[in-house]
Amino acid sequence: MATVTQQGNRGSLTRRQRISRLWSRVYQACVGLAALALVILLLKIVDDAFGTVAVVNVVDPASLVSQDGRSIEQQNAEELAGLARDYLDEEGRHFVSTDRLFTLFLDEVARTELPSSALRNLTVGQALFSGQNFPQKWADRTLFELRLPDVARVERDARARADIALLLAGNVEQGRLLELVYNDIVQVELLESWNLIDSLTRQDEIRARAARDFPQATLEFRSWLNADFLRTPGSSQALTSGIRVALLGTLWMLVIAIGVSLPLGLGAAIYLEEYARHANNHRLLRLLNGFIETNIRNLAGVPSIIYGILGLTVFVRAMEPLTSGQLAGVAGADGRTILSAGLTMALLILPIIIINAQEAIRAVPQSLREGSYGLGATQLQTIARQVLPVALPGMLTGVILSVSRAIGETAPLVVVGAATTIFVDPDSPFSRFTVLPIQIYRWTADPREGFQDVAAATIIVLLLLLLSLNASAIILRNRYSARARRTL
Predict the structure, then answer these.
(1) Which of 343, 266, 348 minimizes the C-alpha distance to 299?
(2) Radius of gyration in angstroms for the set of CA atoms belonging to the chain, rounded to a whole number
(3) Where are the alpha helices (DSSP H) in 222-282?
(4) How far apart are CA 444 and CA 238, in angstroms?
(5) I need a surface site. Which of 72, 222, 275, 392 has the fewest CB within 10 A?
(6) Is 309 exposed, middle or buried (0-12, 13-18, 19+ CB in 10 A)?
(7) Angle between the 451-487 and 244-270 helix axes, to the nearest 10 degrees?
């Protein structure tokens, strides 16, 4: 009888071991497939972010030399402003527009110490102080009135052209005028692009095709991810597009979201774990605390688009005087600002922070609290000096998860009012904005040549930003973990 039982036990053990090995292989296969998919995705992104391009200049830079033979790089601001004047858009030629010139001038003036709200009603004479660098007839016009039709439609007026050249030469840096000449007059046009793998393996074929289809074009290897890409705003041309505006908008949004959600989330977790459980003797408070905890955990699974609708209703519309900046004296704005986006994302990540902070506080040994009470510390002192330092590493894990979710969300920001095309840097919480995920979506949907490559470079920047923020949080978590171990 004992022998039969032992044989049965050995058979059962063998079956369990066989099943265990089977599931172990299934899990390993799943991890391997996930890793393979991630590697393929990263390779595709890198493949599109670098490669060979065929480009041609709309205007040959050699035709823009000065009378004494100096190239455009050697010309001063007055000469470059003269080129901009000569190439103002005429008869359907797509060169420099007057609106582009005035925008360049206004951007240069906006670099001063004056806030953007003050610039709106400032006259040209007040902003520039000297009559030597602008036409006197514009002295009493406000800066934003320079875009009015009676000033802007001057393409066929030689005197107005001279006025514009004077305005630019006296107030815009030589470097920015040189950039204008390259972008709007020389206009490097992208004819076709090839990805990195094709550029490395099919060089002869690419050269032959370029010589056949684009005999005037120049072939060059291009890294779409470079310093200019980070510091230039978006553009209608892939070669001159950058992510400065979207990158600044993302950072603004993250600062507001984390700045609002972190203290609220940690405070809520401390209340629920350290104070609410002592109130469970009161039936009403017990029901209220249970209702709060249940809804916090439910909110963690709510689709992000719902948060966008909530943000649109509460922050954009109901709280418009605050989020638009009207209470701060900012005129002409609505509630579709970075502040509304940041508050919406704060609501989105708040449940994640609360839940992870609760788990971290719950993991602190009760003996640590009792020892603190035994030495005469109050509850507040015990929480601040004993519980929080030990729980902080776990709390930072919640911060890592919340930042990872916030930086990649798109749907709530679209509903709140993020712009798909914007060329002005956000300079306050009340500015219009866009973010990197929305910029990626816009460029991936653009069928024109080169924008898929620009989107790939933007994805790399987004991943690097995410990894940098996560690495910072992990370093802080490890530091406080070591301190907590010494405390225990």
Answers:
(1) 348
(2) 31
(3) 227-231, 244-270
(4) 12
(5) 275
(6) middle
(7) 30
Within 8 A by CB and 6+ apart from 219, the residues are 52, 53, 54, 206, 207, 210
The number of angstroms, rounded, from the C-alpha of 478 to the middle of its chain's C-alpha atoms is 27
Residue keyed to tokens 């010494």: 486
Q: Mind listing the pLDDT tens digit for each residue in 467-486?
A: 888 888 888 878 877 766 66
H or E element that contains 346: helix 338-362
**pLDDT tens track for 336-361:** 899 999 999 999 999 999 999 999 99
CATH superfamily ID and name for 244-487: MetI-like (1.10.3720.10)
Nearest residue to 197 (alpha-carbon basis) of 206, 189, 188:
206
In three-state secondary structure terms, 128 is helix
CA pair distance 151, 326, nearest whole angstrom: 30
The pTM assigned to this predicted structure is 0.78
Indicate if the pLDDT at residue 114 is higher than 50.
no
d(CA 405, CA 410): 10
* Position 92 pLDDT exceeds 50: no
Over residues 49-67, the pLDDT tens digits come to 999 999 988 888 888 888 8
What is the domain partition of the chain in residue ranges?
Answer: 51-57+188-223, 59-186, 244-487
Nearest to 414 by CA among 318, 464, 473, 345: 345
DSSP labels for 377-434? --HHHHIIIIIHHHHHHHHHHHHHHHHHHHHH--HHHHHHT--SS--S---STTS---
Run of H or E including 83: helix 77-86
The 10 Å Cβ neighbour count of residue 455 is: 23
Per-residue model confidence (pLDDT) at position 148 = 42
Q: Is 223 helix (H, G, I), strand (E, B) or coil?
A: strand
| Mean pLDDT computed over every residue of the chain | 81
- Give the integer Cα–Cα distance in Å for 427 and 144: 18
Give the pLDDT confidence of 249-258 residue by residue, as tens digits. Answer: 999 999 999 9
Q: Which residue type sits at 108?
A: E
Place of tokens 């390993």: 28
